[in-house]
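Tutorial, part two.
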Amino acid sequence: MKLRTLAGLTALVMVSGVSACGDGSGSSGDSAGGATTIDVWLMRDSVSAQFQKEFVAAFEKAHPDIDVKVQIQEWDGIGEKVTAALASNDAPDVIETGNTQVAQYAQSGGLLDLSDRTEELGGDDWLKGLAEPGAFEGKQYGIPYYAANRVVIYRTDLFQKAGVDAASIKTRDQWIAATEKLDSGGTQGIYLPGQMWYALAGFIWDEGGDLATRSGDNWRGALDTPQALRGMDFYKKLQALGKGPKDSDEAEPPQAEVMAKGQVAQIISTPGGANVVTENNPDLKGKLGFFPVPGKTAERPGSVFIGGSDLVVPAASAKPEAAFTFVKELTGDTWQRKLAAAMSYVPNKTTLADAVASDPGASAMATGAAVGRATPNTPGWAAVEAKNPIKDYMTAVLTGADARAEATRASAAITAAMNGS
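Running the prediction step on this input gives:
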């Protein structure tokens, strides 16, 4: 799944025309020189044109028997396009897909099972938030590519004025205490809109709960469990320490633009949100910092939803071995480190977190990503997000409704959506 503000992590924009980029589909066959040509679909803005150019050149030099044709795809409508490609006899050889989209493609039988290749790819060290949604029914189809997740973006000057040391905030209780101090006068301690359900998911996971649980072949909404209710209770306490709307999410209005107005001490966002803040208010340049979402204890950061991408190989690929070689190189340690440096992404392995140590925003992301998770790994989850009863549930609770009753109602809606009833 692509985080809504993921593209804001970098100002670099992918352009076509690199290594014969186009917008078509299908495999190109073998080149005139006898080399195998593989078609690769990468998503718009997932990497910079410069990074792509360097990688393709290095790959083709290291593997002179393989030519790479990269085709840039748009996020809008990509699900239908990939589904159609997988059902055809002319599919590309490698596709970048949102991590939570893998299950729906695997369910159709359109992806190559790579379970027996995970060891040579370093699978033991993969981020769970990328690896787990890349698997379906016990088989690994998606290979972790890169990750991004939310952190706390804060105003360093407002923290200093309030006597709050951001480095000392390691637990939820410390976070609440600091935010209470910041929420004074004309300053909002935190701007937290009422329907930021990805943040709620992290608080629920920290409590040992989940959005939905599986029993046999069926799924059941789980917002009404004691653990999930505790997560919602924490969200309510935090949300009250600012003036975030109770009936909208972080996009309405755009929370970074709200922070840019100068009266917000904190928001929960991908680090790219800081760029949006300073673009809208240049006076805040040099006054923004980052820290991981705090957990229940100092020993473990808060759970976060991990967005990002996996790489998959269609079952219809005529060159699966060449495709795998491409995937292995791009997701290997050497290029993962270069990708992290170029794009401020979190590398796909926990062992590579030091690659972003000098980047404050990405470093905070990497800390959270180590314990990050994804939404329930089933094609049925898409039906939940289509109507999203979680948002309505959150608004109801924040405006005074009984949490348990509303959670029961929302859980029933999730159950019905996931099971197609």
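Residues 257 and 300 are 31 Å apart (CA to CA). In part three we will examine how such features are distributed along the chain.
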